[in-house]
Amino acid sequence: MSAPQLNALHVKETDGPKLSDEVVFSLSDVAVHYSGVLAVSDISFDIAEKQITALIGPSGCGKSTLLRCLNRMNDLIPGAAVSGHLSYHGHDLYAKTVDPVEVRRRIGMVFQKPNPFPKSIFDNVAYGPRIMGQRKGLDEVVERALQRAAVWDEVKDKLKKSAMALSGGQQQRVCIARALAVNPDVILMDEPCSALDPIATARIEDLMVDLKREYTIVIVTHNMQQAARVSDRTAFLTAEVDEAGRRIGRLVEYDVTHHIFTNPSDKRTEGYITGRFG
Predict the structure, then answer these.
(1) Where are the domains of the chain?
(2) Phi-psi region of 251 (alpha: psi -120 to 50; beta: other; left: phi over 0)
(3) pLDDT tens digits for 113-161?
(4) Which of 156, 223, 236, 254 has the lowest CB atom count within 10 Å?
(5) HSE-up of residue 256 (Cα within 13 Å, Cβ side)
(6) Are 191 and 14 in contact (CB under 8 A)?
(7) Class for the domain spanning 6-11+21-117+183-273
(8) In terms of Cα–Cα distance, which of 49, 47, 36 is closest to 69?
């Protein structure tokens, strides 16, 4: 990204929303190790219901690692270990009694690169409900999910055709529909627009703003203008280098997005936003 001035970003003009009464995630001293090597440390903040929370920061600061903590995707990475406390609606997300499969149903994930299955559009969206044992009413489930993902009108006449034949932006919205089909509570998005053109990106951004009426959304983005446009609150992470030259991600600042982009409280945040480092 070029080095914009603070006032060049299209940020919201108001002070933004206050943290809602309902906290979905509460993180306290969260850290992540990979094979014993510390990757992310000292992460503490709350994520509110039905808001868009953006995670920003330079490459290697642990944004995606932190995002994967929220639905236990790090469980699938050999050698990964999460410590500290992370609660979801007041319940310990990493308690031994918690089923990680159910966690990932309630907390869906949309990845950086559109990843439709090599199946029809219909079968992509119906995949999750079928895995959960649903056999009836799939037509309605698929249509509703595709409508919520703002792609129904574009694909309704080719549901039996391969999702791989769609454009990148359409594929990503089908992947969002696939996540919505299992009725999640939260949607995590890991740089969902980085592989898309500006028009497709604008559609995904509009979709995110629309979806937050029903869902809590957490997005990782390297695009600061995107974070300023769509998010309600923003967490800025940076990477510190230890004595061995290894990068450790740490939280620098978490606030209403308008404040982060116009009046950050930490000079490191201002330096990153203005392009002086990162």
Answers:
(1) 6-11+21-117+183-273
(2) beta
(3) 999 999 999 999 999 999 989 999 999 999 999 999 999 999 999 999 9
(4) 156
(5) 14
(6) no
(7) alpha beta
(8) 47
